[in-house]
Amino acid sequence: MAKPTIANVAKLAGVSQATVSRALRGATNVTEATRSKVQQAADQLNFTLSKSASALASGKTMRVILLVSGKLNEWFNSGVLQGAYEELAPFGYDVTPTFITDRSELDRFFSQLPKSRNSDAIIISSFQLMPAMHDKLQAIDLPTVGVNVPAESGYFDASISIDNYSAMTMAVRLLRSLGHTNIAFCSDYIPTDMIYNTSQRTKAFADAAQANAADGVTFSLLTADAHDAPLSKSDLASQLTAKLLSLPERPTAVCVETDQVAIALVKELRKQQLNVPEDISVLGFDDAEIAQAADLSTIRQEPIELGRIAGRKVLQLLHNEPLEHPHELQNPLLVLRNTTSRIDTGAASAVE
């Protein structure tokens, strides 16, 4: 049986081939009645308009880039991809994921982008743009949506992010209510030439702890030593534990930048004969699936929903629709499990 053509669809629908093309491309100058009639004819004949032909005719690539920090298979990144795809695919858009792990890879990506305007929009996740990068995106008129980025930077047309300041305020207040006054925040090394979402999370923790200083809260910020290649979570936790135990006064509670690092830290603390949560409480961030299995207390964010919202914002920008709330924050949620507890006053006295 011969492959159906656009001419076959036009004949069955009783319209011109140009109308078939416009209808199946989603052009606005076609009535809904005509579009429905054309789609029915196309479905009856199992006809699909070539995406490359559609892109050539419309001037659109029907492609959206998702640029993330870290590997694509990481829990947060894969969730954002899933959510963005769910929103964009029904409108015919492909989502092309790519990733960067350091500044050199980021610079390389942006050096090539203006020469190959091969997408209709870009979603950037978990790191801040530099001014020159923002200028390049503006120069090629590429709509830009951020996920977990600081909206106040002004470098994104729209954004959706977890509210790190609210999250860290909740975390510090929780631990203070459990009797903890000496609290630490543990994170991986962040190069000085990059600004990640966890950079803001660290500052948010310091601000929240400082705001509770009148209630006796003291805090420490512990960061891994500088390293070129990424550390395994086990090696990172080992280094952070050494720093934690080297403090003049050991904290009785620790907030950690992600669940994966928190779980590795709990394991390392127990290797050092410290009981969690009896000797030290540990609070993660993410509520990834692994957190439930590890019975980890944590702060929940929802990357799939962040991706969905980012996808919807992309569609609004591409359709020139006004955004009522261009920059939004997702509310965090405390999830209490078995790695946080009320302070053991006897253990606290022993530490002092």
TrEMBL record:
It comes from Bifidobacterium catenulatum. Signal peptide: none annotated. Keywords: DNA-binding, Transcription, Transcription regulation. InterPro entries: HTH_LacI, LacI/GalR-like_sensor, Lambda_DNA-bd_dom_sf, Peripla_BP_I. This is LacI family transcriptional regulator. The keyword Transcription applies. Residues 4-58 form the HTH lacI-type domain. One of its GO terms (molecular function) is transcription cis-regulatory region binding. It holds the Pfam family LacI. The lineage of its organism: Bacteria, Bacillati, Actinomycetota, Actinomycetes, Bifidobacteriales.
